[in-house]
Amino acid sequence: MAEDKPLVGVIMGSTSDWDTMSHAHEMLERFQVPHECRVVSAHRTPDLMREYATTAEERGLEVIIAGAGGAAHLPGMVAAQTLVPVLGVPVKSRALQGIDSLLSIVQMPGGVPTATFAIGDSGAKNAALFAVAQLATTREPLRRALAEFRAAQADKVKNETLS
Ligand SMILES: Nc1c(C(=O)O)ncn1[C@@H]1O[C@H](COP(=O)(O)O)[C@@H](O)[C@H]1O
User: Fold this and answer.
1) CATH number of the CATH domain containing 99
2) Which of 5, 69, 127, 162 is paired with 62 by a 20 to 30 Å CA distance?
3) Long-range contact pairs involving 45-54 (C-beta distance under 8 Å, separation at least 24)
4) With bands split at pLDDT 50, 70 and 90, how would you rate the model's confidence at 3?
């Protein structure tokens, strides 16, 4: 893409979320979308989270993908402090398999939305694809790349055989 400053911020509550959130990173790489990946925690680094959220727009971020597990307050707390759309990814937690993460992200009070994706790897992948779709509304080359991705995916499924 012509732009080189990050357009998408991929943040997560802990380095332990990287196995999941790397799927978002890989998808953004595939579409050559400039992005940054950082650990930011509402619970453990509240000052950093505030700074990240309040400076996101002026730094040029157009979408934030926020992944967290357990009491996953990060996406909602970031959404509360920026106008940049926040896509929440529930990371699979050890104790409750991510149901806690999902409910923490999806049950926002009216007025402060976060989009919420599926638990785990496919949620991270789809959040990135959603970010690509959002950016593609005003970037024709990215729109074409997304259309090609969809067509290739459809061809793959059509050519699959059952043994
Ligand atoms: N949910 C949050 C937040 C937050 O929402 O601010 N910060 C860390 N965490 C989550 O705690 C889990 C366990 O973290 P550790 O593996 O570091 O103990 C991770 O899934 C992380 O996202």
Assistant:
1) 3.40.50.1970
2) 69
3) 49/74, 49/77, 49/78, 49/81, 50/81, 52/9, 52/11, 52/78, 53/77, 53/78, 53/80, 53/81, 53/82, 54/81, 54/82
4) confident
